[in-house]
């Protein structure tokens, strides 16, 4: 065991460790679990002995605070616990120096490491958020351009539909005009044919009239010749 005077000088350090431990508990940062069963309490050093008593040989002058170890056995009557350190050293220490949680210094270091990890993760998340925000802004700009393009295409489509409707109406009108033109051509052909017939009839009538006049002249001549001639003396 250490002299009483040495233990008394360690109280301020223990008190400081306790304050750090209380601070870590208040901030609510949980220390990650370690693969050990017990730890040296917030004392400076603890001797490691070969047996469960203060008379046994000291194997290690003093295990430092925060040393992790596995519990191999407990002698409750003697107040000693058999342990194995993470380096494989086995021995006995007084049970009163063992705790089931890491000391405040270790918890604080773990909390600081966890805080650094969380800050790094938060920085990555913020960077990702900034990237997503920029991507969303770019996408919003593209969406706006696409909306303008869609509106222009819809207007063009309406114009095409209107032109198509006008073209269909014009086609109907053209079809009616073609039908009217065909009917007028048929009527014109009928009129031309009737005119030709009338002209033929007129020519025939003229020929008949001419022939009649010729006949009439011949008749008159015959009649004149057939009359008896009178003597000039008479």
Please supply descriptive tags for the structure shown above.
3 helices, SH3 type barrels, alpha+beta, 7 strands, two-stranded antiparallel ribbon
Please give the number of β-strands.
Answer: 7
Overall, the morphology is rod-shaped
What is the average per-residue confidence, as pLDDT, rounded to a whole number?
77
CATH class of one domain: Mainly Beta
| Uncertain spans | 1-34
Which percent bin holds the helix content? 55-70%
Which structural class best describes the helix and strand composition?
alpha+beta
Distance between the termini: 212 Å
Order of helices and strands: HHEEEEEEEH
Major β-sheet strand ordering: 6-5-4-1-7
User: Considering the protein shown, what is the CATH homologous superfamily of one domain?
Assistant: SH3 Domains
According to CATH, the fold-level topology of one domain is SH3 type barrels
Radius of gyration: 66 Å
β content, as a range? 15-25%
Count of helix runs: 3
Level-2 CATH architecture of one domain: Roll
Largest sheet: 5 strands, antiparallel
């Amino acid at each position: 065991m250490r002299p009483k005077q040495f233990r008394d000088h360690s109280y301020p350090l223990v008190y400081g460790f306790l304050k750090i431990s209380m601070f870590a508990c208040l901030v609510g940062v949980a220390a990650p679990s370690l693969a050990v069963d017990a730890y040296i309490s917030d004392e400076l050093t603890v001797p490691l002995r070969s047996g469960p008593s203060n008379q046994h040989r000291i194997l290690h002058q003093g295990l430092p605070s925060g040393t992790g170890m596995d519990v191999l056995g407990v002698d409750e009557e003697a107040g000693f616990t058999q342990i194995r350190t993470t380096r494989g050293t086995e021995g006995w220490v007084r049970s009163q120096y063992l705790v089931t949680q890491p000391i405040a210094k270790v918890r604080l270091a773990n909390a600081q490491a966890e805080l650094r990890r969380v800050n790094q993760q938060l920085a990555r998340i913020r960077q990702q958020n900034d990237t997503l925000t920029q991507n969303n802004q770019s996408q919003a700009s593209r969406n706006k351009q696409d909306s303008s393009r869609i509106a222009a295409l819809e207007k063009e489509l309406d114009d095409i539909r209107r032109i198509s409707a006008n073209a269909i109406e014009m086609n109907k009108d053209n079809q009616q005009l073609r039908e009217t033109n065909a009917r007028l051509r048929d009527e014109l052909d009928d009129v031309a044919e009737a005119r030709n017939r009338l002209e033929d009839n007129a020519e025939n009538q003229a020929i008949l009239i001419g022939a009649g006049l010729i006949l009439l002249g011949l008749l008159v001549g015959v009649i004149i010749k057939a009359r008896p001639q009178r003597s000039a003396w008479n």
